[in-house]
Amino acid sequence: MRFVVRIVALSLVALLLFLAGAVLVRSWLQRQHAQIQAEAIETKRTQFNAAVALTLQGADRGLPTYWDAIGRIIDAHVRSATADLPPPPAGVIRLIQDLPDKSGAKAAIDFELPRFARLSLLHGRTWGLLLVGSLTLMLIFISLGLVFTRRTGTGDTRTPWSSARAEMSSLEQLARTSVARGTELAHERDTRRRMERDLSLHQQLQNQALEEKIRLGRDLHDGLIQSLYAVGLTIEAVRPMIARDPAKADQRLGVCLESLNQTIRTVREYITGLSQEKLRQLSFADAVRLFLDELRAGRDVDLELVVDEDAATTLNALQTTEALQVIHEAISNALRHGGATQLTVRLHRGDNEIGLLIKDNGTGFDVENARSGGHGLANMQARAAGSGATLRIDSAAGQGTRIVLTFPVIDQS
Protein backbone atom coordinates (compact mmCIF):
# COMPACT_ATOMS: atom_id res chain seq x y z
CA MET A 1 0.00 0.00 0.00
CA ARG A 2 2.86 2.37 0.80
CA PHE A 3 4.29 1.70 -2.66
CA VAL A 4 1.00 2.64 -4.32
CA VAL A 5 0.70 5.80 -2.24
CA ARG A 6 4.24 6.74 -3.17
CA ILE A 7 3.55 6.25 -6.88
CA VAL A 8 0.39 8.35 -6.69
CA ALA A 9 2.22 11.10 -4.78
CA LEU A 10 5.03 11.20 -7.36
CA SER A 11 2.46 11.39 -10.15
CA LEU A 12 0.70 14.29 -8.46
CA VAL A 13 4.00 16.16 -7.98
CA ALA A 14 4.92 15.68 -11.65
CA LEU A 15 1.51 16.88 -12.79
CA LEU A 16 1.60 19.92 -10.50
CA LEU A 17 5.02 20.90 -11.82
CA PHE A 18 3.77 20.54 -15.37
CA LEU A 19 0.68 22.63 -14.55
CA ALA A 20 2.82 25.36 -13.01
CA GLY A 21 4.99 25.49 -16.14
CA ALA A 22 1.94 25.59 -18.38
CA VAL A 23 0.44 28.50 -16.41
CA LEU A 24 3.68 30.48 -16.68
CA VAL A 25 3.95 29.85 -20.42
CA ARG A 26 0.34 30.88 -21.02
CA SER A 27 0.82 34.11 -19.04
CA TRP A 28 3.95 34.91 -20.99
CA LEU A 29 2.20 34.30 -24.32
CA GLN A 30 -0.66 36.61 -23.32
CA ARG A 31 1.77 39.41 -22.42
CA GLN A 32 3.64 38.99 -25.68
CA HIS A 33 0.39 39.12 -27.67
CA ALA A 34 -0.71 42.32 -25.91
CA GLN A 35 2.68 43.93 -26.57
CA ILE A 36 2.64 42.93 -30.25
CA GLN A 37 -0.89 44.33 -30.65
CA ALA A 38 0.13 47.66 -29.07
CA GLU A 39 3.21 47.90 -31.31
CA ALA A 40 1.15 47.10 -34.42
CA ILE A 41 -1.37 49.86 -33.55
CA GLU A 42 1.37 52.44 -32.96
CA THR A 43 3.13 51.48 -36.20
CA LYS A 44 -0.10 51.74 -38.18
CA ARG A 45 -0.79 55.19 -36.63
CA THR A 46 2.69 56.41 -37.66
CA GLN A 47 2.26 55.06 -41.21
CA PHE A 48 -1.16 56.75 -41.48
CA ASN A 49 0.19 60.18 -40.47
CA ALA A 50 3.10 59.85 -42.94
CA ALA A 51 0.76 58.75 -45.75
CA VAL A 52 -1.57 61.72 -45.13
CA ALA A 53 1.44 64.06 -45.35
CA LEU A 54 2.43 62.40 -48.65
CA THR A 55 -0.94 62.79 -50.37
CA LEU A 56 -2.21 66.02 -51.85
CA GLN A 57 -3.39 68.41 -49.15
CA GLY A 58 -6.09 69.79 -51.44
CA ALA A 59 -7.63 66.38 -52.10
CA ASP A 60 -11.33 65.90 -51.36
CA ARG A 61 -11.46 63.70 -48.25
CA GLY A 62 -15.12 63.04 -48.88
CA LEU A 63 -14.28 60.84 -51.88
CA PRO A 64 -13.66 57.12 -51.36
CA THR A 65 -10.67 57.28 -53.75
CA TYR A 66 -8.76 59.46 -51.28
CA TRP A 67 -9.17 56.93 -48.46
CA ASP A 68 -8.44 54.04 -50.86
CA ALA A 69 -5.10 55.68 -51.77
CA ILE A 70 -4.20 56.00 -48.08
CA GLY A 71 -5.22 52.37 -47.48
CA ARG A 72 -3.02 51.08 -50.31
CA ILE A 73 -0.01 52.91 -48.90
CA ILE A 74 -0.35 51.53 -45.35
CA ASP A 75 -1.93 48.15 -46.26
CA ALA A 76 -5.19 48.72 -44.40
CA HIS A 77 -8.88 49.53 -45.01
CA VAL A 78 -9.23 53.28 -44.41
CA ARG A 79 -12.40 55.37 -44.50
CA SER A 80 -13.90 58.43 -42.91
CA ALA A 81 -15.00 57.79 -39.31
CA THR A 82 -18.76 58.23 -39.01
CA ALA A 83 -21.31 57.31 -36.36
CA ASP A 84 -22.93 54.62 -38.53
CA LEU A 85 -19.78 52.55 -39.17
CA PRO A 86 -20.45 48.80 -38.79
CA PRO A 87 -18.33 46.94 -36.22
CA PRO A 88 -15.10 45.41 -37.56
CA PRO A 89 -15.04 41.70 -38.49
CA ALA A 90 -13.59 39.16 -36.10
CA GLY A 91 -9.81 39.29 -35.92
CA VAL A 92 -9.65 42.86 -37.30
CA ILE A 93 -8.43 45.81 -35.22
CA ARG A 94 -10.09 49.20 -35.70
CA LEU A 95 -8.11 52.37 -34.99
CA ILE A 96 -9.89 55.77 -34.91
CA GLN A 97 -7.22 58.38 -35.75
CA ASP A 98 -7.41 62.18 -35.91
CA LEU A 99 -6.06 63.71 -39.12
CA PRO A 100 -2.75 65.53 -38.50
CA ASP A 101 -3.99 68.82 -40.05
CA LYS A 102 -6.03 69.60 -36.86
CA SER A 103 -9.23 69.90 -38.90
CA GLY A 104 -11.16 67.75 -36.42
CA ALA A 105 -11.81 65.02 -39.02
CA LYS A 106 -11.25 61.38 -38.04
CA ALA A 107 -10.41 58.28 -40.02
CA ALA A 108 -11.31 54.65 -39.26
CA ILE A 109 -8.39 52.27 -39.95
CA ASP A 110 -9.17 48.53 -40.05
CA PHE A 111 -6.21 46.12 -40.21
CA GLU A 112 -5.25 42.63 -39.15
CA LEU A 113 -2.43 41.70 -36.80
CA PRO A 114 0.66 40.05 -38.33
CA ARG A 115 0.45 36.31 -38.86
CA PHE A 116 2.87 35.46 -36.08
CA ALA A 117 0.73 37.45 -33.59
CA ARG A 118 -2.31 35.36 -34.49
CA LEU A 119 -0.13 32.27 -34.08
CA SER A 120 0.83 33.48 -30.59
CA LEU A 121 -2.84 33.84 -29.68
CA LEU A 122 -3.52 30.32 -30.96
CA HIS A 123 -0.68 29.01 -28.82
CA GLY A 124 -2.23 30.68 -25.77
CA ARG A 125 -5.55 28.98 -26.43
CA THR A 126 -3.80 25.65 -26.96
CA TRP A 127 -2.10 25.92 -23.59
CA GLY A 128 -5.49 26.64 -22.02
CA LEU A 129 -6.84 23.40 -23.42
CA LEU A 130 -3.70 21.66 -22.23
CA LEU A 131 -4.31 22.91 -18.68
CA VAL A 132 -7.82 21.48 -18.72
CA GLY A 133 -6.53 18.15 -20.02
CA SER A 134 -3.83 18.02 -17.34
CA LEU A 135 -6.34 18.62 -14.55
CA THR A 136 -8.51 15.85 -15.94
CA LEU A 137 -5.50 13.51 -16.07
CA MET A 138 -4.61 14.36 -12.46
CA LEU A 139 -8.14 13.53 -11.32
CA ILE A 140 -7.95 10.20 -13.13
CA PHE A 141 -4.67 9.37 -11.38
CA ILE A 142 -6.13 10.21 -7.97
CA SER A 143 -9.23 8.11 -8.64
CA LEU A 144 -7.17 5.15 -9.80
CA GLY A 145 -4.97 5.41 -6.70
CA LEU A 146 -7.97 5.47 -4.38
CA VAL A 147 -9.58 2.49 -6.12
CA PHE A 148 -6.34 0.50 -6.00
CA THR A 149 -5.87 1.37 -2.31
CA ARG A 150 -9.39 0.20 -1.47
CA ARG A 151 -8.93 -3.07 -3.32
CA THR A 152 -5.64 -3.70 -1.50
CA GLY A 153 -7.22 -2.91 1.89
CA THR A 154 -10.09 -5.37 1.41
CA GLY A 155 -7.80 -8.40 1.49
CA ASP A 156 -6.59 -8.72 -2.10
CA THR A 157 -3.46 -10.87 -1.67
CA ARG A 158 -2.28 -10.66 -5.30
CA THR A 159 1.20 -9.24 -5.83
CA PRO A 160 1.08 -5.58 -6.82
CA TRP A 161 4.04 -5.85 -9.24
CA SER A 162 1.94 -5.99 -12.41
CA SER A 163 0.06 -2.84 -11.39
CA ALA A 164 3.30 -1.17 -10.37
CA ARG A 165 4.84 -1.93 -13.74
CA ALA A 166 1.83 -0.39 -15.51
CA GLU A 167 2.04 2.72 -13.35
CA MET A 168 5.77 3.04 -13.93
CA SER A 169 5.15 2.70 -17.65
CA SER A 170 2.57 5.48 -17.42
CA LEU A 171 5.04 7.72 -15.55
CA GLU A 172 7.71 7.01 -18.17
CA GLN A 173 5.26 7.89 -20.95
CA LEU A 174 4.30 11.08 -19.10
CA ALA A 175 7.96 12.06 -18.75
CA ARG A 176 8.56 11.47 -22.46
CA THR A 177 5.50 13.52 -23.33
CA SER A 178 6.67 16.37 -21.08
CA VAL A 179 10.13 16.37 -22.70
CA ALA A 180 8.60 16.31 -26.19
CA ARG A 181 6.27 19.19 -25.36
CA GLY A 182 9.17 21.16 -23.90
CA THR A 183 11.14 20.63 -27.12
CA GLU A 184 8.16 21.72 -29.22
CA LEU A 185 7.71 24.81 -27.07
CA ALA A 186 11.39 25.76 -27.48
CA HIS A 187 11.10 25.27 -31.24
CA GLU A 188 7.97 27.42 -31.38
CA ARG A 189 9.68 30.11 -29.30
CA ASP A 190 12.68 30.20 -31.66
CA THR A 191 10.37 30.31 -34.68
CA ARG A 192 8.41 33.20 -33.20
CA ARG A 193 11.60 35.14 -32.49
CA ARG A 194 12.75 34.68 -36.08
CA MET A 195 9.35 35.85 -37.31
CA GLU A 196 9.55 38.90 -35.03
CA ARG A 197 12.96 39.79 -36.44
CA ASP A 198 11.69 39.34 -40.01
CA LEU A 199 8.64 41.49 -39.31
CA SER A 200 10.77 44.20 -37.70
CA LEU A 201 13.06 44.28 -40.74
CA HIS A 202 10.07 44.35 -43.09
CA GLN A 203 8.54 47.21 -41.08
CA GLN A 204 11.79 49.18 -41.22
CA LEU A 205 11.96 48.72 -45.00
CA GLN A 206 8.36 49.88 -45.36
CA ASN A 207 9.01 52.98 -43.24
CA GLN A 208 12.17 53.77 -45.22
CA ALA A 209 10.26 53.42 -48.50
CA LEU A 210 7.50 55.71 -47.24
CA GLU A 211 10.01 58.31 -46.04
CA GLU A 212 11.77 58.13 -49.42
CA LYS A 213 8.46 58.76 -51.22
CA ILE A 214 7.81 61.83 -49.07
CA ARG A 215 11.36 63.14 -49.57
CA LEU A 216 11.18 62.61 -53.34
CA GLY A 217 7.83 64.43 -53.46
CA ARG A 218 9.32 67.42 -51.63
CA ASP A 219 12.37 67.51 -53.89
CA LEU A 220 10.27 67.33 -57.05
CA HIS A 221 7.96 70.08 -55.81
CA ASP A 222 10.71 72.40 -54.59
CA GLY A 223 13.05 71.75 -57.54
CA LEU A 224 11.74 70.41 -60.83
CA ILE A 225 8.21 71.81 -60.63
CA GLN A 226 9.50 75.31 -59.79
CA SER A 227 11.88 75.12 -62.77
CA LEU A 228 9.00 74.17 -65.07
CA TYR A 229 6.95 77.07 -63.70
CA ALA A 230 9.82 79.41 -64.55
CA VAL A 231 9.93 78.07 -68.13
CA GLY A 232 6.17 78.61 -68.44
CA LEU A 233 6.50 82.23 -67.26
CA THR A 234 9.26 82.79 -69.83
CA ILE A 235 7.05 81.48 -72.64
CA GLU A 236 4.20 83.75 -71.53
CA ALA A 237 6.55 86.76 -71.58
CA VAL A 238 7.83 85.85 -75.06
CA ARG A 239 4.44 85.56 -76.74
CA PRO A 240 3.76 89.33 -77.07
CA MET A 241 7.40 89.91 -78.20
CA ILE A 242 7.17 87.73 -81.29
CA ALA A 243 5.44 90.38 -83.38
CA ARG A 244 7.32 93.51 -82.22
CA ASP A 245 10.83 92.16 -81.50
CA PRO A 246 11.44 88.73 -83.10
CA ALA A 247 15.18 88.76 -82.36
CA LYS A 248 14.68 89.29 -78.62
CA ALA A 249 11.85 86.75 -78.61
CA ASP A 250 14.13 84.19 -80.28
CA GLN A 251 16.80 84.91 -77.66
CA ARG A 252 14.31 84.33 -74.83
CA LEU A 253 13.10 81.11 -76.47
CA GLY A 254 16.71 79.94 -76.61
CA VAL A 255 17.01 80.55 -72.88
CA CYS A 256 13.73 78.68 -72.39
CA LEU A 257 15.03 75.72 -74.43
CA GLU A 258 18.22 75.62 -72.38
CA SER A 259 16.15 75.63 -69.18
CA LEU A 260 14.11 72.68 -70.43
CA ASN A 261 17.29 70.78 -71.33
CA GLN A 262 18.67 71.53 -67.86
CA THR A 263 15.45 70.25 -66.30
CA ILE A 264 15.75 67.03 -68.31
CA ARG A 265 19.34 66.63 -67.08
CA THR A 266 18.15 67.22 -63.53
CA VAL A 267 15.52 64.48 -63.90
CA ARG A 268 18.20 62.09 -65.08
CA GLU A 269 20.37 63.06 -62.12
CA TYR A 270 17.47 62.34 -59.75
CA ILE A 271 17.12 58.90 -61.33
CA THR A 272 20.84 58.17 -60.88
CA GLY A 273 20.98 59.81 -57.43
CA LEU A 274 23.44 62.58 -58.47
CA SER A 275 21.23 65.67 -58.06
CA GLN A 276 21.89 66.32 -54.37
CA GLU A 277 25.58 65.47 -54.77
CA LYS A 278 25.93 68.04 -57.57
CA LEU A 279 24.20 70.67 -55.44
CA ARG A 280 26.59 70.01 -52.53
CA GLN A 281 29.61 70.53 -54.82
CA LEU A 282 28.69 74.20 -55.33
CA SER A 283 29.40 76.85 -52.73
CA PHE A 284 26.40 78.16 -50.81
CA ALA A 285 26.46 81.53 -52.61
CA ASP A 286 26.90 79.94 -56.06
CA ALA A 287 23.92 77.66 -55.45
CA VAL A 288 21.71 80.66 -54.54
CA ARG A 289 22.81 82.52 -57.70
CA LEU A 290 22.09 79.40 -59.76
CA PHE A 291 18.54 79.27 -58.33
CA LEU A 292 17.92 82.92 -59.21
CA ASP A 293 19.25 82.53 -62.77
CA GLU A 294 17.04 79.50 -63.24
CA LEU A 295 13.84 81.04 -61.86
CA ARG A 296 13.99 84.70 -62.94
CA ALA A 297 12.43 83.83 -66.36
CA GLY A 298 14.12 86.78 -68.07
CA ARG A 299 12.98 89.39 -65.52
CA ASP A 300 15.25 91.95 -63.89
CA VAL A 301 15.67 91.03 -60.23
CA ASP A 302 18.11 92.60 -57.77
CA LEU A 303 19.76 90.15 -55.38
CA GLU A 304 21.47 91.17 -52.16
CA LEU A 305 23.47 88.08 -51.17
CA VAL A 306 25.55 88.01 -47.98
CA VAL A 307 26.99 84.63 -46.95
CA ASP A 308 29.18 84.10 -43.89
CA GLU A 309 31.57 81.36 -45.03
CA ASP A 310 32.15 80.26 -41.43
CA ALA A 311 28.40 79.73 -41.05
CA ALA A 312 28.18 77.89 -44.39
CA THR A 313 30.95 75.45 -43.43
CA THR A 314 29.46 74.86 -39.96
CA LEU A 315 26.22 73.47 -41.46
CA ASN A 316 26.31 69.72 -42.03
CA ALA A 317 25.35 68.13 -45.37
CA LEU A 318 21.68 67.63 -44.47
CA GLN A 319 21.28 71.17 -43.10
CA THR A 320 22.96 72.67 -46.18
CA THR A 321 20.71 70.73 -48.55
CA GLU A 322 17.51 71.62 -46.69
CA ALA A 323 18.51 75.30 -46.36
CA LEU A 324 19.15 75.56 -50.11
CA GLN A 325 15.83 73.86 -50.88
CA VAL A 326 14.01 76.35 -48.64
CA ILE A 327 15.77 79.21 -50.48
CA HIS A 328 14.76 77.68 -53.84
CA GLU A 329 11.11 77.46 -52.79
CA ALA A 330 11.14 81.00 -51.32
CA ILE A 331 12.69 82.56 -54.46
CA SER A 332 10.19 80.73 -56.69
CA ASN A 333 7.23 81.92 -54.60
CA ALA A 334 8.55 85.50 -54.48
CA LEU A 335 8.97 85.71 -58.26
CA ARG A 336 6.04 83.59 -59.39
CA HIS A 337 3.35 84.64 -56.90
CA GLY A 338 4.67 87.88 -55.38
CA GLY A 339 6.12 89.54 -58.48
CA ALA A 340 9.17 90.58 -56.45
CA THR A 341 11.96 92.69 -57.97
CA GLN A 342 14.29 92.71 -54.98
CA LEU A 343 15.55 89.71 -53.02
CA THR A 344 17.74 89.50 -49.93
CA VAL A 345 19.47 86.30 -48.81
CA ARG A 346 21.73 86.39 -45.76
CA LEU A 347 23.47 83.57 -43.89
CA HIS A 348 25.25 84.47 -40.66
CA ARG A 349 26.47 82.77 -37.48
CA GLY A 350 25.78 83.75 -33.89
CA ASP A 351 27.11 82.32 -30.66
CA ASN A 352 24.73 79.35 -30.48
CA GLU A 353 22.86 79.39 -33.79
CA ILE A 354 23.12 79.95 -37.53
CA GLY A 355 20.48 82.21 -39.08
CA LEU A 356 19.22 82.26 -42.67
CA LEU A 357 17.15 85.26 -43.85
CA ILE A 358 15.18 85.32 -47.12
CA LYS A 359 13.34 88.57 -47.80
CA ASP A 360 11.51 90.00 -50.84
CA ASN A 361 9.51 93.10 -51.78
CA GLY A 362 6.66 91.16 -53.39
CA THR A 363 2.93 91.46 -52.81
CA GLY A 364 2.99 89.23 -49.71
CA PHE A 365 0.20 86.90 -48.58
CA ASP A 366 -1.92 85.77 -45.62
CA VAL A 367 0.23 83.13 -43.92
CA GLU A 368 -2.63 81.38 -42.06
CA ASN A 369 -4.76 80.95 -45.19
CA ALA A 370 -1.78 79.87 -47.28
CA ARG A 371 -0.88 76.99 -44.94
CA SER A 372 -3.83 74.90 -46.14
CA GLY A 373 -3.44 75.73 -49.83
CA GLY A 374 -0.43 73.90 -51.25
CA HIS A 375 2.78 72.03 -50.57
CA GLY A 376 5.24 74.96 -50.44
CA LEU A 377 4.92 76.11 -46.83
CA ALA A 378 4.33 72.55 -45.58
CA ASN A 379 7.53 71.40 -47.30
CA MET A 380 9.47 74.27 -45.71
CA GLN A 381 8.20 73.28 -42.26
CA ALA A 382 9.03 69.61 -42.86
CA ARG A 383 12.55 70.43 -44.07
CA ALA A 384 13.19 72.64 -41.06
CA ALA A 385 11.95 69.97 -38.64
CA GLY A 386 13.95 67.23 -40.38
CA SER A 387 17.22 69.20 -40.03
CA GLY A 388 16.61 70.30 -36.41
CA ALA A 389 15.91 73.93 -37.33
CA THR A 390 13.06 76.35 -36.56
CA LEU A 391 11.18 78.27 -39.25
CA ARG A 392 9.38 81.60 -38.95
CA ILE A 393 7.42 83.19 -41.82
CA ASP A 394 6.21 86.80 -41.62
CA SER A 395 4.11 88.22 -44.45
CA ALA A 396 1.07 90.37 -45.11
CA ALA A 397 -0.68 91.71 -48.21
CA GLY A 398 1.40 94.47 -49.82
CA GLN A 399 4.31 94.10 -47.35
CA GLY A 400 6.46 91.40 -48.92
CA THR A 401 7.62 88.23 -47.19
CA ARG A 402 10.32 87.56 -44.59
CA ILE A 403 11.47 83.99 -43.86
CA VAL A 404 13.91 83.17 -41.04
CA LEU A 405 15.42 79.69 -40.67
CA THR A 406 17.47 79.10 -37.50
CA PHE A 407 19.84 76.14 -37.04
CA PRO A 408 21.38 75.22 -33.67
CA VAL A 409 25.19 75.17 -33.57
CA ILE A 410 26.43 71.71 -32.54
CA ASP A 411 29.78 71.70 -30.75
CA GLN A 412 32.09 69.36 -32.66
CA SER A 413 34.73 69.18 -29.88
Write the layout of secondary structure elements.
Elements: H1 2-54, H2 64-74, E1 77-80, E2 92-98, E3 106-112, H3 115-153, H4 161-238, H5 241-244, H6 246-272, H7 275-281, H8 284-295, E4 302-307, H9 309-314, H10 317-336, E5 342-349, E6 353-360, H11 367-370, H12 376-386, E7 390-395, E8 401-408
Parallel strand pairs: 4-5
Antiparallel strand pairs: 1-3, 2-3, 5-6, 6-8, 7-8
Helix pairs in contact: 1-2, 1-3, 1-4, 4-6, 4-10, 8-10, 10-12
First and last CA, distance: 83 Å
Q: Secondary-structure element sequence? A: HHEEEHHHHHHEHHEEHHEE
Strand content: 5-15%
Shape: elongated
Summarize the structure.
The protein is of the alpha+beta class and 413 residues long. The chain contains 12 helices and 8 strands. The strands form 2 sheets. A 5-stranded mixed β-sheet has the order 4-5-6-8-7. It has a 3-stranded antiparallel β-sheet with strand order 1-3-2.
Walk me through the structure.
With 413 residues, the chain is α+β, with helices and mostly antiparallel strands. 66% of the residues lie in helices and 13% in strands. It has a domain at 209-408: Heat Shock Protein 90, CATH 3.30.565. The chain contains twelve helices and eight strands. A five-stranded mixed β-sheet has the order 4-5-6-8-7. Helix 1 (2-54) crosses helix 2, helix 8 runs parallel beside helix 10 (317-336) and helix 10 packs antiparallel against helix 12. The model has no long low-confidence stretch (mean pLDDT 77).
